[in-house]
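hiii so um. not sure if this is the right channel but i have a protein structure encoded as tokens and i wanna go backwards to a sequence. like what aa goes where. can anyone help
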């Protein structure tokens, strides 16, 4: 039993701006989770969130693909799953199309976790990420001090 998740969103921002939100640690903390991400192939990093039954709140990751400004892929391991998240950006007349493929969910636990993450990704990609992208300006990123994702 295997399951993959795919999400598509289009944002009214240039591709470089969306890319910065995907690859800047402070921005990622704002729209996803606190982290020690660096946009370097092979960099191992962690996301931290609230623990839950069967999950210590730590997601161990490693950057496995980086093609600025169009593709970012990293492993996603924690809570009994071993998956890969891949963000693909494409410039479109409306701004930037983002496709997220979160792949590799298997077994009963994987199906349960994919269901939980699927709902989370919809909210994150539909609201939290575009809000973070909107806070970029020529002078950099202005994170929210009361981010709901921390």
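sure thing!! here u go:
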């Amino acid at each position: 039993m295997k399951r993959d998740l795919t999400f598509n969103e289009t944002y009214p921002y240039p591709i470089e701006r969306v890319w910065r939100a995907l690859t800047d640690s402070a921005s990622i903390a704002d729209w996803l989770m606190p982290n020690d991400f660096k946009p370097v192939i092979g960099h191992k990093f962690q996301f931290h969130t609230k623990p839950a039954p069967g999950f210590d709140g730590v997601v161990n990751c490693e950057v496995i693909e980086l093609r600025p400004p169009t593709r970012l892929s990293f492993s996603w391991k924690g809570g009994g799953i071993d998956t890969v998240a891949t963000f693909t950006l494409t410039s479109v007349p409306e701004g930037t199309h983002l496709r997220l493929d979160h792949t590799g969910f298997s077994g009963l636990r994987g199906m349960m976790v994919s269901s939980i993450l699927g709902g989370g990704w919809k909210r994150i990609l539909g609201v939290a990420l575009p809000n973070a992208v909107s806070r970029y300006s020529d002078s950099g990123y202005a994170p929210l001090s009361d981010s709901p994702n921390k």
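oh and The domain at 2-136 is CATH 3.30.530.20 (Alpha-D-Glucose-1,6-Bisphosphate; Chain A, domain 4).
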